User: Fold this.
Amino acid sequence: MSGTSTASRWGLRTLGLGYLLLLLLAPLVMIFYKAFEEGLAPPFEAITSADGLHALKLTLLMVVISVPLNTIFGVGCALLLVRHKWKGNGVIDAVINLPFAISPVVIGLSLYLLYGTDGWFGPALAEAGIKVLFSVPGMVLASIFVSLPFVVRETVPVLQEIGTEQEQAASTLGANAWQTFWRVTLPAIRWGVAYGVVLTTARVLGEFGAVTIVSGSITGETQTLPLFVEKQYANFNQAGAYGASILLAVLALATLLGMNLLKRKEDA
Amino acid sequence: MEAHPATAQMAPRAGMRLPGVGAGAGRGLVVLYLSLMVLLPLAALTSQSLEGGLGTFWDQVSSPLAVSSLKLTVICSLIVVVVNAIFGTIIAWILVRDDFPGKAAVNAVIDLPFALPTIVASLTLLAIYGSDSPLGIDIAFTRTAVVVALLFVTLPFVVRAVQPLLIEIDREMEEAAASLGAGGFTVFRRIIFPNLLPGLAAGVALAFARALGEFGSVLIFAGGLPETQVSSVFIRNQIESGNEIGASAVSVVLLLASLVLLALVSLIQRWTSRHERGSSGGLTTMPMSGSEPTGSKEEGDDERN
Assistant:
């Protein structure tokens, strides 16, 4: 078309697709090849081993706790930011973006210091018999921190786009705030929220850096699937590492599929 | 659709109430959640880094290992960002302006690095570009491996930031320029590139922030050798050897870099939203996913009112 010759078009296409092939596609194919190199049995045994199953369960537990909390927070916070002008909104908006830019290791260390034996919260919680570090609560806090922005960031633009006319109409017709939210606002923003939920889930499932610092990665105790992958690799157990990797890769592909379906719904 | 003027007057804010709690209480809850989950841990980190005073902080940050890890991290991240800017724009270009079989699938797979756990990425990069490489390329445990791992995890940022801007560019301007005799490259340099610049800058800043702090994808593929030790791996090693002040001092340096980059992104967005009709009301948007600007297809004119 305008100004683009056939030669330069093919040149760009080759460059772009070649880059993607080497950087994305080849590694993706490699996970599957490596996992099944010795047949179906080794990866399957790795996942269904006691430690593998424990890691899977713990990973799902992270999702079940962190995702609903961040979703409720995310929708509520987005409503506040978009529908209620306030001078503090800019600060809230900025703080929400922090987890995107901060290293997972720095996040892990921050929690480690806050809840550690010398930390501000550590001694009091220890006295109350609550163990945060090297156990589930610390891992949940890490998961919440790293995945906090997604629902807010996906809901805000959708809320801005739908405007307030329908909400105002509903309340003029006598609907209370809850009814307006459930019957008018939520149906209008649901695909945006769902998109945020998918991103949150993917991030929690795959989080490594922050969780590894606060959990200590104790096999059979505080190991999620990504930590399991690393430990298996470090112990020269290729089958175990790739077995768990394949499970995580399949979940990632499901995430991509979900993202695309939701994007289409949102645009429709 | 316009709001009926009478209804708007009769119920000025009624439909905007937050369900369950009022705006004031809602704000309180949001601030509480953010403080507990995000701000307090970061405050604890900062306080720990200054435990021994500013002198100790400086000694830790300027120790040879800390400096070499920071240097490596910054240099690799800079390389990564330049490559991303070029290839990200090319990929966005072929996704918007080109047409080829399988384009939808390619567009979908761009987000893979956001969905795939970083440790899995590291393991599989080692499998394909390590000593058993089926392609005969062995770069494992080198600085090149650091760069490749960072390229993998940051790939979507520039693509997803540039793509929506490319969709919105007025094709008539390009055609006018071309009909006046401008060549393909001139059209790109004078018309397309200036339009893409804000997205490119925001994407680059976010990719840079991500690269500075990346941990999982580098860990297995590049390892923790002295010459491939990026700052996040350095921090982890300091924690493991019990040097909490050293770990937190370098962490604070990374944290400051993140803050500067986020401020930059928000400045870019504020600057562009002042020059465009689609104001985001001062709230940031993140090119973190396949989000194309919804409603860009329907002119977006009736919102102006």
